[in-house]
Design a protein that fits this description.
The relative contact order is 0.21. A hairpin with a 2-residue loop joins β13 and β14. This protein folds into 2 domains: 112 residues, Jelly Rolls, CATH 2.60.120; 72 residues, Jelly Rolls. It has 191 residues and is mostly beta strands. The radius of gyration is 16 Å and the shape is globular. Helix content is 0%, strand content 62%. The strands form 3 sheets. Strands 1, 12, 13, 14, 15 and 16 form a 6-stranded antiparallel beta sheet that branches. Strands 2-3-4-11-6-9 form a 6-stranded antiparallel beta sheet, with no helix packed on it. It comes from Rhizobium sophoriradicis.
Length: 191
């Protein structure tokens, strides 16, 4: 179990050069954009345009801040994503174009290699105490807004806005959380 502090997240250009992404976690560690098994990142989208293509990758996107954007995903009806929307899953290796609703947005992006890794992404509102089930061997809890304290087994700690908790190689269990925060839980399953 590791706390990944917001100040330590890695900043890097988008694959297509159209913006900047903030990498929260990647596996294997230090993997590049062509060699990861899974990756969790945030990006600010400041202009309409195409998404980067990632062959063999599945992606889920959630809007963290801003007025939303419409995604035109090849083979699907256009989808409006806002901060209130459920995260949207789609293949990362087909053409996708984003059109901003009203100004820049910040999104949370989870990507996994389709031939052996799967993922889930859910938004969790914390107001007081909450117990969250951890159903995968790898889980990442991002504290987007607010602050929280957590306990998992014998370990405990605290997260501020932008911090993440990465739990790896664990059996099914629970994470006890206290605080006032808006969070996102990423579950990553490998065979």
């Amino acid at each position: 179990m590791r706390i990944l502090r917001a100040a330590d997240h890695k900043r890097m250009p988008w694959k297509n050069g159209g913006g900047e992404t903030v990498e929260i976690a990647v596996s294997p560690e230090e993997a590049g954009l062509a060699g990861f098994d899974w990756r969790v990142s945030m990006a600010t989208v400041a202009a309409d345009g195409p998404f980067s293509i990632f062959p063999g990758i599945d992606r889920t996107l959630a809007i963290l801040d801003g007025n939303g954007m419409v995604l035109d995903i090849e083979g699907m009806a256009p989808a409006l994503l806002t901060v209130a929307s459920d995260p949207l899953a789609f293949p990362a290796d087909i053409p996708v174009t984003a059109k901003l609703q009203d100004g820049a947005i910040t999104d949370l992006n989870v990507m996994t290699r389709r031939d052996g890794v799967a993922h889930g992404l859910v938004r969790i509102e914390i107001a007081g105490g909450k117990t969250v089930s951890l159903m995968s061997s790898t889980c990442l809890l991002l504290c987007h807004r607010g602050t929280l304290s957590f306990r998992h087994g014998d370990e405990a700690g605290a997260l501020a806005a932008g911090d993440a908790l990465l739990i790896e190689n664990q059996e099914e269990g629970a994470l006890e959380i206290d605080g006032d925060a808006k969070c996102y839980l990423v579950s990553i399953a490998t065979p």
